[in-house]
Amino acid sequence: MENFEYYNPTRLIFGRGSIARLAEFLPTGQKVLLTYGGGSIMANGVHRQVREALAGYEVLEFGGIEANPEYSTLRKAVQICRQEDVDFLLAVGGGSVLDGTKFIAAARFFDDGDPWRMCVDDVVIERALPLASVLTLPATGSEANAGAVISHRELGQKRPFMSDLVRPKFSILDPETTFTLPTRQTINGIIDAFVHVVEQYVTYDVNTPLQDRQAEAILSTLVEEGPKVLADPRNYDARANIMWCATQALNGLIRCGAISDWGTHMIGHELTALWGLDHAQSLAVVLPGLWRHEKQRKRNKLLQYGERVWGIRDGDENARIEGTIAKTVAFFQSLGVKTNPADYDISEDGYAKVADRLAARGAILGEHDAIGRSEVISILKLCN
Please, how many CA atoms are within 13 Å of residue 235, restricted to the half-sphere of its CB? Predict the structure, then answer.
């Protein structure tokens, strides 16, 4: 096991009716900026619940944060925070709203040029507004981690940043807020959480049996509970299990002492930036090809994953690995997600464009730092 440091101070308040407890955790006398996305929280009653729970607070609102939070939109919220001297940010929505709110929190005090530098330069964030969340779309784990991914449409980029200063102070997770999610968003959340886990698990062995089994438990639960949610969107227990899986998938716990990859994510971000794929769609496209390309380096973990999650024990090792990848592809497709670049009108001519964009910023991907420009092209050719 590798050395590690684990720090996660986010308080999680989970279950039915938990939105009503907001004021228990939000400091009194705060001027709060409530952030949200396209307005679904108005239709499903979450906005009303939040405003009722915030009675007695001075509350401003900022809506319209996109599914891939857009830099130009977030800059408008930063200006509101500065002009109105906002004390606290409350993100109500899914991972994109949360990620955007994290950027707002850090950009509020960023005075060293363009705040986009937080995403593209090695900038130390020294101060941020405190924030919390009411989660309505389980997917990214942003409710309990220090990371965010922001898009810059004008530059055609989608880039991450991290800082412990933007960890939510607390997050409220009420599975009932997910009952009315569109099917596409529910599916995307399941796949997002699934790929978060395998990016931290299907690498190479450094003797982390506990973390491996924690990862396998999340994957198996997503496989079991995902179809239940699609069959019955108001199944509270299934919704609760999916929500908790998504949080556990990327709150830092399963990566303690282990080795992570993130190559699928980095290539996937480029598909989103160039062709507008949903984040989860891009992951479902890239992951099979990356595993095929890297199957020798990932051999032992792919075999272990196939046996423990999919029950694949028969045949020689190569056949078991191919069967494991096929089972994963079939799972994504069973949820209604396509896995071939051609399904999204991405031709082989576009593969070099993805590789060139990554190479232009010196990106070398994978847990072995062995995936460069030519390997990215090869990976995309193996995607289906």
Answer: 16
Token pair, residue 176, equals: 């009932």
Q: Which of 299, 304, 305, 265 is nearest to 285 (CA)?
A: 265
**Residue 14, C-beta contacts closer than 8 angstroms, at least 6 positions apart:** 173, 174, 240, 243, 244
Structure confidence by residue, pLDDT tens digits, 75-85: 999 999 999 99
All structural domains of the chain, each given as residue ranges with its CATH number in brackets, are 11-178 (3.40.50.1970), 183-381 (1.20.1090.10)
Instruction: State residue 256's pLDDT score.
Output: 97
H or E segment and range at residue 136: strand 131-137
Place of tokens 């952030």: 35
Confidence of residue 112 (pLDDT cuts 50, 70, 90): confident
Which of these, 100, 293, 261, lies nearest to 195 by C-alpha position?
Answer: 261
Q: Could you give the CA distance from residue 35 to residue 63 in angstroms, rounded to a whole number?
A: 6
Burial 97-133 (b: 16+ CB within 10 A, else e): bbbbbbbbbbbbbbeeeebbebbeeebebeebbbbbb
DSSP bridge pairs for 62: 35
pTM of full prediction above 0.70:
yes
Q: Are 268 and 286 in contact (CB under 8 A)?
A: yes
Cα Rg for the chain, rounded, in angstroms?
A: 20
pLDDT tens digits, residue range 130-170?
A: 999 999 999 999 999 999 999 999 999 999 999 999 999 99
